[in-house]
Specification:
heterodimer, A: 100 residues, mainly alpha, Helix Hairpins, 78% helix, elongated, B: 165 residues, Four Helix Bundle (Hemerythrin (Met), subunit A), 2 domains, 6 helices
């Protein structure tokens, strides 16, 4: 039997990598992918704790997270598409019209 | 055997995320994440969550990533050009992520000693999850369908081409 702590460590590592990717990447789409990685890391922690406690509620929470993430991906990608159509770029550095 | 599978899947997962960070082309970044999310589904299976694992593979590795790839193909791709003054920012973000990892490990270390509890029969199967979803979590479940409906309409309204005449 694999210790649950290994899964927790993996989820912490995944979350940190996702945060690093969010900070490093300059493309709106890839930054959005990094957010998805962080969501998945949280999901892994949820399932690991559900296993550790023997409670199914954690898995149900992951189910809701996945469905809401799918909805969020649809809306977020539509917004990115709209930004591209208006500004002809999806680089976060070039979207600076709010700069004074 | 299970330990071997765990190490294989977690290595695949971490390699996918690293490949996503290191590749300059956004399309390759998205493709790198597909094996990563699929291996996460396998890890859920190892944690006695077969239903959630299958949902993960179908929705994340399948539907969401295909959506990303479709949008990527609508946007003309330019590989990221290396820019001056990025080195300081890069090292700062790596430092920040490392600090975050240390913080997460510290806060999780309190739960590291907990061994897995004895799982009851059928733990994590579709039958048990469905019973929980349609009994204890019925209202959240129905509200989720409203959320998806709103997201669908919102996405169509946002992405629709408006004629300016």
């Amino acid at each position: 039997m694999i210790p649950v702590s290994w899964f927790l460590a993996l989820s912490g590592l995944l979350f940190a990598l996702g945060a690093a990717a969010f900070l490093i990447k300059k493309d709106l789409l890839v930054m959005f992918l990094a957010v998805e990685v962080m969501l998945n890391a949280a999901n892994l922690a949820f399932v690991a704790f559900a296993r550790a406690r023997g409670l199914l509620e954690g898995q149900v929470a992951v189910f809701f997270v996945i469905t809401v993430a799918a909805a969020e991906a649809a809306v977020g990608l539509a917004i990115i598409l709209l930004v591209f159509r208006r500004r002809k770029t999806v680089k976060a550095d070039e979207l600076d019209i709010l700069k004074g | 055997m299970a330990v071997l599978i765990f190490f294989f899947l977690s290595a695949l997962c971490l390699a996918g995320v690293l490949g996503m960070i290191l590749s300059r082309n956004p399309a390759y970044s998205a493709l790198w994440l597909v094996p990563s999310f699929a291996s996460l589904g396998g890890l859920f299976g190892l944690l006695d969550a077969p239903f959630i694992g299958v949902v993960q593979v179908i929705i994340y590795a399948g539907a969401v990533m295909v959506l990303f790839l479709f949008v990527l193909m609508m946007i003309p791709l330019r590989p990221e050009a290396p820019r001056r003054g990025r080195r300081v920012f890069l090292s700062l973000s790596v430092l920040l992520a490392a600090g975050l990892a240390v913080l997460i490990f510290l806060s999780l270390s309190a739960s590291f000693g907990a061994g897995p509890a004895a799982a009851p029969e059928g733990f994590g199967g579709p039958k048990e999850i469905g019973r929980l979803l349609f009994r204890d979590f019925l209202y959240p479940f129905e509200i989720t369908s409203l959320v998806i409906m709103a997201a669908l309409v919102g996405a169509i309204v946002l992405a629709k081409k408006r004629d300016r005449s």
